[in-house]
Amino acid sequence: MITLWRVFKSGFRNTFRNAWLSTAATAIMAVTLLIMTFFAFSIFFVRSQLNEVQQKIDLTVFISDDAKDEQIKALQNKVLQSGGVESVEFVSKADALKRLENSSEEGKKLAKSATEIGNPLPASLEVKLEKLDDIGGINKQIRELPEAVIITETSYDSRDDNRKGVIENVIKISNGVTRVGAILSIVFLVIALLIIFNTIRMAIFTRREEIEIMKLVGATKWFIRGPFIVEGSMYGVFGATIATIALIPIGRVAGQFLIDKFNAGQAMAYFGTNFWLVVLCIYALGIFIGAVSSWLAISRHLKL
Asked: How many Å apart are CA 288 and CA 33, to the nearest integer?
């Protein structure tokens, strides 16, 4: 236990021996961890937006006002039996009006006006598809059913609710964010590894006489190497601390902007709820990068 304490004490003291190199290593570590955190958030945010779009109704079939209940039921059953259809829900004129009323303040006003003129909103069938790519074929298939005489139009006909293009755009954005984030993360990760590698190399060079004396008096390889591993890990700890402190004000400012402009409430809520888990991951990643850099430098320059 005493030996372990000495290793940690020596490694911690060595962190402050070369102030400029230590500052550079800590700064680049903090930037690297921040970029990786923002990259992880961006991926989660884009994926959650994609999932939210995909979960919405894919195809809406509008029903004529003079359609009878048995006609609607027959059409609903036929649509449900169509290949590629996951579910079909009937929305009556009254339900459509209630949805409009509950949608927003503006919706309440529109619903009131609609009520005064006799509710012109049509009944509809909301069709959820197994694959959005099939929307064109399924729309055509529904249109060709004998029971389709009660259909006035579909959302695919008017293209008002065609989400295929939206999802394709979100996927492109997701892939773009993934590539850019991965490139930036790798670049700064390599820079962090190189700076810490050179910092430890300089420390080994500076302490070469001390290391020789320790070898002569019978110090174990672990006792000699340990302080350098601790030193590299400390750069990770300091960098993670700075990154966490910076993350709080950045998260508040950027978070409110993302919520207002991009409806990122779900992603922000998730990261807020799991904030300490995110912090733990930042520290773990920082220590891992520091320890690996130190080990690489020791393996190359510390001959025992």
From this structure: 11
Q: Which amino acid is at 56?
A: K
Calpha distance 11→222 (Å, rounded): 13
Confidence (pLDDT) at 4: 67
Instruction: Tell me how far the alpha carbon of residue 11 is from its chain's centroid.
Output: 36
Sort residue 131 into left (φ over 0), alpha (ψ -120 to 50) or beta.
Answer: beta
**Amino acid residing at 97:** L
How far apart, in whole angstroms, are the C-alpha atoms of residue 242 and residue 73?
62
Supply 252's token pair: 């508040």
**DSSP assigned state of 153:** E
Q: Kindly give the pairing relationship between strand 123-129 and strand 59-63.
A: antiparallel
For 80, the token pair is 């449900």
CB 79 within 8 A of CB 142: yes
For residues 93 and 113, what is the distance between their CA atoms, to the nearest angstrom? Answer: 15
Reported CATH class of domain 57-161? alpha beta
Distance CA 185, CA 235 (A): 18
Distance CA(72)–CA(145), nearest Å, equals: 13
Q: Please, what's the largest Cα pairwise distance for the chain?
A: 100
Q: Where are the domains of the chain?
A: 2-53+166-301, 57-161
**Tens of pLDDT, residues 68-102:** 889 989 998 998 888 888 888 898 888 888 888 88
